[in-house]
Amino acid sequence: VNLTDTPLAPPEEVKAFNDAQAKVKQAEDKLRKAQNDLKAKKGDATPETVKQLAADVERLKKAVPPQYPV
Q1: Half-sphere exposure of 44 toward its Cβ, with a 13 Å CA cutoff?
Q2: Which of 5, 18, 53, 61 has the smallest number of Cβ neighbours within 10 A?
Q3: How far apart are CA 54 and CA 48, in angstroms?
Q4: pLDDT tens for residues 21-64?
Q5: Inter-residue contact 49 to 39 (CB < 8 Å)
Q6: Half-sphere exposure (CA, 13 Å, Cβ side) for 70?
């Protein structure tokens, strides 16, 4: 077991952080797809949609709890 990667936080704190990070990644992926669709002029992506998704990503990033100590 590599103890340098073992979190020094309660499991629920680790889960909350990891879940929040996953939500950010999911939102970033959705934003990237919308930006690509807008550039390629396909799908139903609009500048407003991209702007809203970018705002969602920022909001989610701010909501991520601080990283637990390892």
Answers
A1: 0
A2: 5
A3: 10
A4: 999 999 999 999 999 999 998 888 899 999 999 999 999 999 99
A5: no
A6: 9
By the 10 Å C-beta count (0-12 exposed, 13-18 middle, 19+ buried), 21 is classed as middle
What tokens were used for 21? Answer: 């990070």
| Contacts with 47 (C-beta within 8 Å, 6 or more apart), sequence order | 38
Q: What is the DSSP string of 27-59?
A: HHHHHHHHHHHHHTT-TT--HHHHHHHHHHHHH
- Cα 33 to its chain centre, rounded Å, is 14
Unique residue bearing structure tokens 């929040």? 20
The helix or strand, by DSSP H or E, that contains position 19, with its residue range, turns out to be: helix 11-39
**How many residues are listed for the chain in this entry?**
70
Amino acid, res. 58: E
